[in-house]
Automatic annotation (TrEMBL):
Pfam families: PPR, PPR_2. InterPro entries: PPR_rpt (IPR002885), TPR-like_helical_dom_sf (IPR011990). GO terms for molecular function: DNA binding; mRNA binding. The lineage of its organism: Eukaryota, Viridiplantae, Streptophyta, Embryophyta, Tracheophyta. It comes from Cajanus cajan. This is Uncharacterized protein. PPR repeats lie at residues 46-80, 115-149, 150-184, 185-219, 301-335, 370-404, 405-439, 440-474, 475-509. Keywords: Repeat.
Length: 542
């Protein structure tokens, strides 16, 4: 083209060559050509050439190179157009490049060019970086510059307010959006529901039900209007109910998700489902969801492995949990400290102590051992009456720099006491007091139970006095244990009187309370009284 003279003072011809060079990614050749154009055309250079190069860079996500062409464009005194800023701002939004986006927006306003998508991109970047005041300033620019928002722009502005929990402004935007002839879609409603959730969390002085009720009404309105909620909408509503502490309603929403075969939960919703079912102790739901995840061949990552193992420990067989844990490790994923501790508890309860030791060594090697790790192992050995390993684990705990915890002392007291090793029991209790480790309800209940089993009623009374002196009141377990202890000591009237005391203190007796009382009465030949209380239990359907 140069030989035939077609390039001479022809913007169109130069643009054809630049397009060819950009396709080859010959950026050096393109730069040389622009230098030639600058010398040949001077002030007659067109924005088309630069837009061609910027477009090629945007397609390849070449942020620095696109910025270079834009800066060169300005240096050559070539005025950009709407397309220039639309492409650049979309690229900067994708890369979250705040500095270049701010520069491009300032140049756009300097040239008095109005590009709605460029404003949207700037608001999105600020919102993503939680620079909410800056985002609101850009929204104000849009109003000043008389920008007619398109649908995407409306959604971006709506999101900026909702992310801050500014619901009055968001509701106003939604109304303006409708007045402008745009119908709110599922994305807009999802954004609003998120906003209501944000407002509830941000205002700590308000009840969490403050704006939550608005979100719930909006969700129920959407549900009854026939608008098909998508996976994102369901995810938002589920989290909204969880934040409000309404797990029952969250489960109802999850039931609706199950009825929609077209909705495939993503990893985040699956993890939410697992956590909710675990908190609600819905063991069958956990097992069903686990096998469903396994069959659908979801791409398992580290987070999903940890979540499944943590939540499904009570729902799956030990062999399946062991297989899943091994699969996680073999695939190169690292179990969290919580996962290690959960699996230690599972193996300990199943008396698989070789696996307990292997897991402990693995966790220690990774530096993921904490005080709960030792508490779990000590409790497992204690329940199995493996006193040697229990004692050596306590020593390891101290050697690794951990103080012997209250939970560890409680496990040792329970193990030695139930085995009748009263001298060792007293020795552990003394060590606990010497280390200034404060007792809790579990400690006192264990002492009442052990002393009661021995028939040492004076010691039981002493523990009860100590419990009250330290500011604690007997709980349900304390009363149940006391009734059992009084029965062993032949103090039947005192055992019956405890029922009245419980109710006076606002503690409702349970099945174990009455069972212990009936046993105490029978032990002391009070058969008629025992029958009366048994009939009372049947009447109460206990």
């Amino acid at each position: 083209m140069r030989a035939t003279g077609k390039l001479e003072r022809s913007n169109g011809a130069y643009n054809v060559v630049v397009r060819m060079l950009s396709r080859r990614q010959d950026w050096e050749g393109a730069e040389r050509l622009i230098s030639e154009m600058k010398a040949t055309l001077g002030s007659d250079m067109s924005f088309h050439v630069f837009n061609t190069l910027i477009y090629a860079c945007c397609k390849r996500n070449l942020v620095q190179l696109a910025t270079k062409w834009f800066r060169m464009m300005l240096e050559c005194h070539v005025a950009p157009n709407v397309a220039t800023f639309g492409m650049l701002m979309a690229l900067y939004r994708k890369a979250s490049n705040l500095q270049e986006a701010e520069f491009a927006l300032s140049q756009m306003r300097r040239f008095r060019i109005v590009c709605p998508s460029a404003y949207s991109s700037m608001v999105t970047i600020y919102t993503r970086l939680r620079l909410f005041q800056n985002a609101e300033r850009v929204i104000e620019f849009m109003r000043r510059d008389h920008v007619a928002p398109n649908f995407e722009t409306w959604l971006v502005v709506l999101n900026a307010y909702c992310q801050q929990g500014k619901l009055e402004e968001a509701e106003r935007v939604l109304e303006e959006m409708r007045e402008a002839g745009f119908c709110a879609d599922i994305v807009a409603y999802n954004t609003m529901i998120t906003g209501y959730g944000k407002a509830s969390r941000m205002d700590a002085a308000q009840s969490v039900m403050g704006r939550f009720k608005d979100a719930e009404v909006l969700y129920l309105k959407l549900k009854s209007s026939g608008i098909a909620l998508d996976m994102i909408a369901f995810s938002i509503v589920v989290r909204m109910y969880v934040k409000a502490g309404s797990l029952k309603d969250a489960c109802t929403v999850l039931d609706d998700v199950d009825k929609r075969p077209d909705i495939v939960p993503d990893k985040f919703l699956l993890c939410d489902m697992l956590r909710i079912y675990q908190r609600c102790n819905m063991v069958d739901k956990l097992a069903d969801l686990y096998y469903k995840i396994s069959k659908t061949r979801v791409n398992w990552d580290q987070e999903l492995y940890n979540c499944v193992l943590n939540c499904c420990a009570q729902a799956l067989p030990v062999d399946e949990l062991s297989r899943l844990f091994d699969d996680m490790v073999q695939r190169g994923f690292l179990p969290s400290t919580i996962t290690f501790n959960v699996m230690l508890d599972v193996f300990g309860k199943a008396k698989l102590f070789k696996k307990v030791w292997r897991l402990y060594c693995m966790a220690k090697k990774q530096g993921l051992v904490d005080v709960i790790t030792y508490n779990t192992i000590i409790a497992a050995y204690g329940k199995n009456k493996d006193f040697e390993n229990m004692s050596s684990t306590v020593q390891k705990m101290e050697f690794d720099g951990f103080s012997v915890s209250l939970e560890a002392y409680n496990s040792m007291l329970d193990a030695y006491g139930k085995d009748g090793q009263m001298d060792t029991f007293r020795s552990v209790l003394q060590k606990m007091r010497d280390s200034n480790c404060a007792s809790d309800h579990y400690t006192y209940n264990t002492m009442i139970n052990i002393y009661g089993e021995q028939g040492w009623i004076d010691e039981v009374a002493s523990v009860l006095t100590e419990l009250k002196e330290c500011g604690l009141r007997p709980d349900l377990c304390s009363y149940n244990t006391l009734i059992k202890a009084y029965g062993i000591a032949g103090m039947v009237e005192e055992a019956v009187a405890l029922i009245k005391e419980m109710r006076k203190n606002g503690i409702e007796p349970d099945k174990k309370t009455y069972t212990n009382l009936v046993t105490a009465l029978r032990r002391n030949d009070k058969f008629l009284e025992a029958v009366k209380w048994s009939l009372w239990m049947k009447q109460m359907k206990l």
